Fold this sequence. Notes:
alpha/beta, TIM Barrel, Rossmann fold, FAD/NAD(P)-binding domain, 3 domains, eight-stranded parallel barrel, 18% strand, globular
Amino acid sequence: MRLxxxxxxxxxxxxxxxxxxxxxxxxxxxxxxxxxxxxxRHIAYLAARARGGTGLxxxxxxxVHPDGLDLPRMPxxxxxxxxxxxxxxxxxxxxxxxxxxxxxxxxxRQAYHDRRVAPSPLPAxxxxxxxxxxxxxxxxxxxxxxxxxxxxxxxDAGFDCVEIHAAHGxxxxxxxxxxxxxxxxxxGGSFENRIRFLLEIxxxxxxxCGGGFPVGVRFNGEDYVPGGWSLPEALRLAPRLxxxxxxxLHVSAGVYGSMPVTIPSMYEPFGLFVHLAEAVKKxxxxxxxxxxxxxxxxxxxxxxxxxxxxxxxxxxxxxxDSELAHKALTDRIDExxxxxxxxxxxxxxxxxxxxxxxxxxxxxGREFILEKAPQRATVSKAVLVVGAGPAGLTCARVLARRGHxxxxxxxxxxxxxxxxxxxxxxxxxxxWDMIASLVSELERLGVExxxxxxxxxxxxxxxxxxxxVLATGANPRIPEIPGLFDSGLELATVLDILxxxxxxxxxxxxxxSDQAAMVTADFLATEGREVAVLGGGRFAPELAPNDRxxxxxxxxxxxxxxxxxxxxxxxxxxxxxxxxxxxxxxLEGFRDLVLSQGFRPERELxxxxxxxxxxxxxxxxxxEPRTLLEITAEADELGRAL
Length: 642
């Protein structure tokens, strides 16, 4: 077997798991109703991953107390009334051969409400604002009981195990970290005091549920913030947890505001936290789970084969492809739909208190609807998709899977649309994985992709389409600035730069602050140029916060100057005169200006189609330039509607 380590069984205490692939707890903010009961939507979402062959699946995260509710739509476990619905979830997951665990979570000072509590009245470092209330001793003891009772409810509901969430800056993690815990009683100060709350919870769960009920602990190997929890302390804690009865350790990293962030974007290396799990594993005999930007089963296999961990957690990879495990087991790794590390649907949406979704997998969260819908179209149609960008290819995929005869055409010599250019800047290469995956699947589905092909009357007569989808993308907008074209500056659009059609000199100004502007500025700076960005109100607002944070860090390291709310006022011989929020400036010696003022839809073909009396559907940027998340969702919907 190619992945013999990944697909070998493993025991976590008394629990035998069919393989070493873990779907870690992830808050998706859907599938829980107004009363807090898990719904069929959540059950179908996780059941799809169990049916797909994953060994151990965690529900994330189960709130042990009303004040610990991190997000509005996470499953509560603070009352017995939630047991029946949780029981239906556990039964369905187990029916497919997977093991099901419940994460026990208290959000602490990072919870999204105004009743936040913490070991000390110190605000979270990022994301959540406001000072939490300091817990009293009796409240701490009550929360120990709450964790134990929540574990008992999980056991009564038929869950195979529970995992204590002591990572990522939530309540237990706050007790562990010196910079979050300033207490002077028995729960603060020394290492022994700071780990007391966690150890009391673990002891209480074992006492309440019995020593044979498997309990694991997820904790940070590093907080990656000044004064935070660190690896030397993690290595001291691990043997203590084993001694206290923990059946496995799940080693993660980061808190709100850390760098790298807890859920790293495409800018960060694969497996960036594995070294922490590897270090912890050397201190204990119980199994250790590694996590952190592991999206490839081959990497997971290597981690296990090298003895760096005993199980591997692949989070976002499971959101993208519910059949991840089965495809890997049956040697169809090239068919796995790839996570591109954009964090847009899975992280930004959830932090905005919206439902999780996915750029690559618009089906996420809709499993309960789609599994009841007809998989094939009633009538097979001939569909012409014009444009082989992400919108056109996504739509073509759904159309072909539903039984339509699909032909995709594009004027360019390769598929991908503007993702060809978008994947060129440093750290953005995984965007291309999406295109490669779509093209590969369309080949398997028998979809013809014709490149270097224009749509004319001859082509339309040949194909005689029943439906036409125009996914022709968009072109850069050119701003109206007095004197711009008489300025003597070398002008180029972001696409000109990323295509290599324009090669600017040593000093370059970028006009705009959208995602395209910022990644192009990074591209130019990486090649050794001095770069200044004359931006608007926000920089790269389309990017998820963790993606944007990594990009901003790169720009700062490269010395790129960012000017907010900048307006060009003139083009004197010395350079570019401008005003910005807080002052005015002159970019002396800057003779190149890159334009990034948004895009306008490309609809050249609509006139021809109208003249021929052919109806069509505008899709993606051809309809209205938007984010990749929005256009792939729209493409998926159109593919199901035709």
